[in-house]
Amino acid sequence: DGGITQSPKYLFRKEGQNVTLSCEQNLNHDAMYWYRQDPGQGLRLIYYSQIVNDFQKGDIAEGYSVSREKKESFPLTVTSAQKNPTAFYLCASSARAVEKLFFGSGTQLSVL
Amino acid sequence: GENVEQHPSTLSVQEGDSAVIKCTYSDSASNYFPWYKQELGKRPQLIIDIRSNVGEKKDQRIAVTLNKTAKHFSLHITETQPEDSAVYFCAASQGAQKLVFGQGTRLTINP
After folding, report:
1. Closest CA to A78 of A22, A21, A7
2. Is A40 left (phi over 0), alpha (psi -120 to 50) or beta?
3. Beta carbons of A105 and A9 less than 8 angstroms apart
4. Do A103 and B43 touch (CB under 8 A)?
5. Does the beta-carbon distance from A50 to B97 stay under 8 Å?
6. Which of B33-37, B39-43, B54-58 has the highest mean pLDDT?
7. Distance (Å, rounded) from C-alpha B30 to C-alpha B107?
8. Cβ distance of A44 and B101 shorter than 8 Å
9. Which of A61, B32, B38, B42 has the fewest CB atoms in 10 Å of its CB?
10. Coil, helix or strand for B83?
11. Distances in Å between the alpha carbon of A84 and those of A36, A68, A70, B46?
12. Which of B34, B46, B104 is closest, CB to CB, to A42?
């Protein structure tokens, strides 16, 4: 997974628990994104960040939170407020806004 | 906001034949249209993209056409091979910072 690394590959969440998904890139990209992928629904945008210390909500931000304290890192927290968190989560980065997104290998989150 | 519809949801073609996947978008201000390929269990990868000032772009066996008036764009794969089997996603830009994806097309190449 050269360039952008997501961890862990699999994650299990217990009821009422917050979990954090890691996303790290060494591509020197300014923009970073989190997408949720459900079967048959394509990719839906959760949060995005164009620059350090700044981020915006995407289309399905409820129940999620992010931070962008470093250019290389954009962790996603799935809070207990997210009632249906089971999905495949993809992190992406790009050098120029939405163009030529480079994706990580994803994290599969499941509920115990 | 932008809405992207992708058809068909599944497509099966014989090896060597052509495959066409179509997408429509709603925001006439969209100006960037990429296509991603996702093989089973792997991350999506950009295969081709087009800007609104271009009507067609080709890269070997893959081509994308854009009709701004009708607000639709299509992916064309010629001389299909087994390694073309994957899920393909189209997307359209919404503003300068967001991409909206279609629902995906599962393409199967039959030997």
Report:
1. A21
2. left
3. yes
4. yes
5. yes
6. B33-37
7. 26
8. yes
9. B42
10. helix
11. 12, 24, 29, 29
12. B104
Could you please report the per-residue DSSP string of A10-63?
EEEE-TT--EEEEEEE-S--SEEEEEEE-TTS-EEEEEEEEETTEEEE-TT-TT
Do A77 and A68 form a contact (C-beta atoms < 8 A)?
no
- Interchain contact, B42 vs A105, CB within 8 Å: yes
Which of B53, B58, B47, B33 minimizes the C-alpha distance to B83? B47
Best mutation target among B99, B101, B103 (most A Cβ atoms within 10 Å) is B99
Place of tokens 């764009």: B73
CA B18 – CA B15 distance, rounded (Å):
8
pLDDT at B72 over 70: yes
pLDDT range class, residue B41, cuts 50, 70, 90 = confident
Residues of chain A scoring pLDDT < 70 = 1-2
Please tell me which of the candidates A50, A56, A99 has its beta carbon nearest to residue B32.
A99
